[in-house]
Amino acid sequence: MSFDAEAKMQFLFALRSKGVTDKAVLNAMESIDRGRFIQGYFTDRAYDDMPLPIACGQTISQPSVVGLMTQALKIGPRDKVLEVGTGSGYQAAILSQLARRVYTVDRHRRLVHAARQVFEALELTNITAFTADGSFGLPDQAPFDRIIVTAAAEDPPGPLLAQLKIGGIMVVPVGQSDAVQSLIRVTRTDSGYEYHEMRPVRFVPLVEGLGKD
Ligand code: SAH
């Protein structure tokens, strides 16, 4: 299957019907072919609105969830964005269309290598991918205008809150890994943090330390 006009139309229709209405986000999702981030058996399902398995027992998120999280970040063209949980690289690729610079980190080296190859092939030169435990953020690159966490934590990790600029926004799924989690939008103000609960979601857990591969 290819991301032809027909596939794009259906893909965008599904996104809109799930509440992804931001024009810039829809344009970004139209310009990045999700099929490039999926290998093997499931390539046929690349344009369906469902999460799919990737290597290392992880998943590429559902497109409408990618769209809603990206939309909630309200990214500006000058923004420096951190993503925790590179996975396939799809979410980072969408962010790269909207932000000045994207840093993405995953605990699995193998996923980071595969994602870098796709970024290179698509000439997405404003993304830098690292293998690291992202719950500590990226102190050398901090602070960030926007932070997106694509794995569920029991609470928003303290180092990530600390690496968010004042006026910055973070989107993070919060809750136990085996239960339904809540997608939370955190805004850093002059005096602290404001929390807004967006919707129930289901993500793989944020895990401590590096993966075996
Ligand atoms: N955003 C991805 C989907 C992410 S799935 C995409 O667009 O495809 C969640 C990812 O979070 C997995 O790849 C997992 O390895 C990663 N992860 C889990 N805990 C982590 C941690 N502490 N630091 C960095 N990455 C982590």
Key structural traits:
about 210 residues, alpha/beta, 9 strands
What does this structure look like?
- The chain is built from 6 helices and 9 strands, in the order ααββαβαβαββαβββ.
- With 213 residues, the protein is of the alpha/beta class.
- The chain has one domain (5-201): Rossmann fold.
- The protein has a 7-stranded mixed beta sheet. The chain has a two-stranded antiparallel ribbon with strand order 1-2.
- Helix 5 links the parallel strand 4 (101-106) and strand 5 (127-131).
- The radius of gyration is 16 Å and the shape is globular.
- The mean pLDDT is 96.
- S-adenosyl-L-homocysteine (SAH) is lined by residues 58-61, 84-85, 87-88, 90-91, 105-108, 111, 133-135, 150-151, 204, 206-207.
Q: What is the secondary structure topology, with strand pairs?
A:
Blueprint: H1 5-17, H2 23-31, E1 52-53, E2 59-60, H3 63-73, E3 80-84, H4 90-96, E4 101-106, H5 109-121, E5 127-131, E6 144-149, H6 158-162, E7 164-174, E8 181-188, E9 193-201
Parallel strand pairs: 3-4, 3-6, 4-5, 6-7
Antiparallel strand pairs: 1-2, 7-8, 8-9
This protein binds S-adenosyl-L-homocysteine.
